[in-house]
Structure formats: structure tokens, C-alpha cells
Amino acid sequence: MARSDLEKAHLLLQKRKFAQAISILESGKNPEIYRESFDYFLTAGLACLYLGDTGGAGMYFQRARRIRITDPTLLCAQAVLFLHKGETERAIEYYVDALDYDPNNKIAMSAMEFIRTHGSYDELYRAIDSGDIKKYYPPLGINPDTVKRIVLSAFAGVILALMIFNFGKFSRLTHKIQISASSRADLSELFLSVDEIGNARKKDLSGGTYKYILSDAQIKKSYDMAMTYFQDYRENASQVEINRLLNSNASDAIKAKAQMISSYFKEPTFDSLADYGDNIDYSDVAKEPDLYLGCMVAWSGRISNSVNEGKSYRCDLLVGYENMDRVEGFVPVLFEEAPYPPVDGERPIKVLGKIKVENGKIALEGRAVYQPVKRD
To answer: How far apart are CA 217 and CA 129, in angstroms?
Structure first.
């Protein structure tokens, strides 16, 4: 009986042919039959993870998690993505969950011991850069090609049985799918190709200025984080990584793809900025404005120099002056349409706006305002 595409992809995964596995999984002719397939998303995520595409892996794992959140293999896979980002506390949370469901999970126990003894940023980066981090990836089982070379002895049957045993962990994968139904846009076409990863930096830096000089690994990490943050509904965090790439020595191809990621953003609201903890302090923006261009912020203070210009409304926001103690900064704010109800200049205000630079100064494109109800 012929193998399904998912079975073929799993076999390629075991053979460490990750790009071919992803290609098969993403080129199916009947994607609708896999819309709820946990195993598809897990396998595609593992292929991306081992290929080095942590952004793609994160997207697939998130979709697998929406179907099943108690799978130890998935939890360990997501935990190692947090290690890639240096978020050791989040990684530990996922490893603890994995051990709740599988108390003898060796990967989770080993990774937690690594975090305990070598969890500093520098040691994490060395593990990522050297490839040692792969020790904490979910195992793929025996490589069938290796087994074939061994199966020349009287123990061929036993070795083959062991291979089938390891293979059984993924034998449920019997269908194929394409990425579908999600409130987030499908960014699969924006995954970095092998060629783009291999040529991440510009070769000739003459004639240009670059605020950030990054290594190949750092460029790829920023790009993967931009993709992952997008899938986690964290537009601001994604925009920061995109800005880092745009102001760096990254290749033009990677910069173009990074800009395309931001074209899918949905603007955060007061609530979502608070929910995801991605509001940005004025002091941080003042230090590196280029790193935060296009980010949405909610800054409190009082206004001055307000003026209506037809339908638009312009004012200066005195950031941090809501209690009239001190002013952190003066920020021009322009609303294309004047807020309603009208702004009361006598009361504290919180402004939601997009960061830009106007005449060399930090400014905001106003989106909304909030003022507490006036007390009697």
C-alpha cells in the first residue's frame, strides 16, 4: 500500500531531510482533510525547528497547541523555542508542564538541569551558536539510512524492529494539509530560504551606514523572533526586531521580507498593549528612536498647544506629567480626525499612537485617547 504524503514527510524527517519534509507537507492537493490534524502541525514544526527556521516552527507549534495542549513532545519543542529567545523562565514553565504529563521525560529533565547550571545569556547564546542546543530538541528516532547500512548482519530483523518502534511515535501521520483557519495571516511564504539563511549579511558595506552590525546567527534570530512575535499577537515586539534588521547589515532580501511581515500587522489597542505587556516607555524610545518606529504606545500625561486644523487635531503631549510632578518629554501628536468627545486640556490623558519621527523629534500619529471621568 502506498504511503500517504504525511508518512513520506515523517520518513524524510527521520532521515534528517527537513526541507524535503516541509515541501511535501506544504504542497498537498487536499488540505481541507488536515485542518484539525495535531500530528501534521507537530511534524511540520519539528522539521522547521531542525532546519533552523524557529519562526516557522513557532507558528506550527502554536497551531498544534490549539488542538492539543497536553502533549509532552510539543511542550518540549515550544520550551526550546523560548531557550532560543533567552526566555528561560517561560521555558521552565513548559518543561514543568511536560513533566506533569510525562514524569520521566528525559529531554525536559536534561534541559532544566542545563538551565539551572548554564542558564546565563552568554552560555545560552554559545549553545545556540554551536548547535549544542539541539540536544534539547525532541528526538527523531533512528535514521533509517543509518539502519540500512547496519542491516547486513544476522541481527537485521532486530534492528529493523527497533527502527519501526521509534517510527511508531509518528505513525499517526496519515494525511496532509496546508496552513489554514487562523486569525493570524499565513506567513509561510515569508520563511527564509536556505540560500537567504546562508547569505544573511550584505557582502559589501561600503556606501551605507548601519546602526547594528549583526552576525548571520543574530540576523536569523531577529527574523525568527519577528515571525514568532507576530504569531503570538505581539506586533510591537515583532516591529522592534524588524527595525533592528532594517537598520543592520542584513541582506536586502531579508530586509524586504521583514518589511512584508509588518504589512500584516493589526494595530494594538489600549487593552491588548496591557494584556501582552508590550507598551514601551518613553525613556526607551528616546534612547533609540529608530528601533521603535512604527510601534504603538499608550503614554500618559497632559496636553498643551492644542489646535483644531479642520477635521484634524494637533497637540503636544507632556509625557509623565499626569500628576504634574515632572515631564519626561514633549511629544507632538497629530490626529487625522479630532477625538470625540473633545479632549479636556485640564485633565490627565492617555494617548494611544504610533511612533514616528517628525523634524528629528519623536512624535505620535494619534489613534485614540482616554481620560478618566471628571470628578465633582
So the answer is: 7
SS3 category, 210: coil
Phi, psi of 57 (to 5 degrees): -60, -45
Bigger pLDDT: 14 vs 79: 79
SS3 350: strand
Query: pLDDT tens across 310-337, in order?
Result: 899 999 999 999 989 899 999 999 999 9
Please say whether the dihedral angle defined by the alpha carbons of residues 25, 53, 206 and 292, taken in this order, is positive or negative. Answer: positive
Integer Cα distance of 27 and 170 in angstroms: 20
In whole angstroms, give the CA distance from residue 256 to residue 258: 5
Place of cell 502541525: 41
The answer to whether residues 180 and 67 touch, using CB atoms and an 8 Å cutoff, is: no
Q: Which amino acid is at 347?
A: R
SS3 229: helix
Distance of alpha carbon 114 from the chain centroid: 23
Using DSSP's 3-state secondary structure scheme, residue 182 falls into coil
Start-to-end CA distance of the chain, whole Å, equals 80
Q: What are 6-62's pLDDT values in tens digits?
A: 788 788 888 888 888 888 787 765 555 566 788 888 998 999 999 888 888 998 898
Residue 344 Cα distances to 330, 339, 373, angstroms: 18, 11, 11
Give the cell for residue 130.
Answer: 554551536
- Considering Cα of 348, then 351, then 357, then 359, what sign does the dihedral take? negative
Dist CA 106 CA 75 (whole Å): 13
